[in-house]
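Hey, can you fold this one?
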Amino acid sequence: MGNDPATRRSRVFANDELRFGLLLVVVGAALIAVLLIRRQPELRVERPLRGIEQKVDDRQRRHQAQKLRAACKRKDCECVESAARAGLDVDAGSEVLQLLTAAKNCRFPALAGVRAEATARAGNTAEGQRLASEVLAKNDRNAHALTALGLIAYQGGAWPAAIQSLDRAMKAGAGDGAQALLGLARYYQNDLPGARTAFQAILASEPEDLEAKYNLGLVAQKQDRYGEARKLYLAVLRAQPGHLQARYNMAILAHSIGAEPEAQHHAALLEKAAPGSPMLTTLREALAKPPARRGQVLTLGGTAPSGAP
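Sure. Predicted structure:
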């Protein structure tokens, strides 16, 4: 009979099995949803990421390179944030903007400030200033927006304004990109102790950073610390023999203390690397003059900003 005890028990068991099965389906679906939310999809950011990684490697920022590669085992939004910060530290503004465009759906707290700084570093001064001002109107301690304003002032040769913005940026937690600019601005203001402090701070965390070594060599040279400057320039040249400014400065440095064979050696290597360069003409003129410990013209790693002495 359909209503006997055995039949009723069978129906109860069947219903229990059905409910248990439905529960498993619901729990499984919920777990899959959680995993999908937590596991961000892969992003097509390979090209700008490679550009940033290359610049980090070129500067020999080994600790940063290791952290970047660890963060970018997956090409997700966490990778984008890490890569953007690393790119700003090595002045890769264009690559950072390309990265943000490729990962347009990524959102992270410092995104607006990062975009402002990257825009300024990419050379779009007006837009960089506009974006930075918008960010600072909402948060006047945004490190990236303050760095953007400091960079724009630096590029215009407004050293006090640059130092003010970059000092604020560092207090707000800015990275080595802002620290390098602060050191250069202080160098141009002839605040050599302040410049030294900035470059040494970079080398404390990234001991092989070539730009920081070079810039600290500039400071040492201007402070007449011949041994220190020579050691730093030679370290740069060992890692990057084609570094023309370091080669130029080594020749000037050797000439300044009367070490003419060494000066001519570096001048010859510069001529071999960059025949016909205006830098070579300037160097030959300097080497033709009597040695002088002071008053030598120094060159920076990149194009000197307007207003530079």
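Confidence is low (pLDDT under 50) at residues 34-38. Let me know if you want another pass with a different chain boundary.
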